[in-house]
Design goal:
three-stranded antiparallel β-sheet; two-stranded antiparallel sheet; alpha+beta; about 25% strand; 5 strands; about 20% helix
Length: about 110
């Protein structure tokens, strides 16, 4: 299930090992999924089926343990990714009514 995707006029880089100039020259144009929810049905020994969900966001630096666990950077300081992360957790836990754009929290 696609949560976030780019427009058809977006460019995306597939070779991050190249120099910036070469990466831009080889960038591909078109829509690409940025965030998706992957769902898998799991059956245990009692033959009871359960659904497992995984939120996958296409940026490895979207959020890190350092940001979450550091006492000098509380959860409210995740910047622009805060709403995306909290809404993703709400979606995974079936709390779609909690999806919102939150008021900015300044230090």
């Amino acid at each position: 299930e696609t949560i976030v995707n780019s427009s058809e006029s977006a460019y995306y880089v597939t070779d991050v090992s190249a120099s910036a100039d070469k990466a831009i020259q080889n960038a591909e144009k078109g829509s690409v999924d940025i965030a998706v929810i992957a769902t898998k049905t799991i059956t245990d020994e009692s033959e009871e089926s359960k659904k497992s969900k995984l939120l996958v966001i296409g940026n490895g630096r979207f959020i890190t343990d350092y940001t979450i666990t550091s006492s000098s950077y509380p959860l409210s300081y995740l910047g622009n990714n805060r709403d995306l992360m909290l809404n993703g957790i709400a979606r995974l836990t079936g709390r779609d009514g909690a999806l919102t754009i939150r008021k900015q929290m300044n230090s």
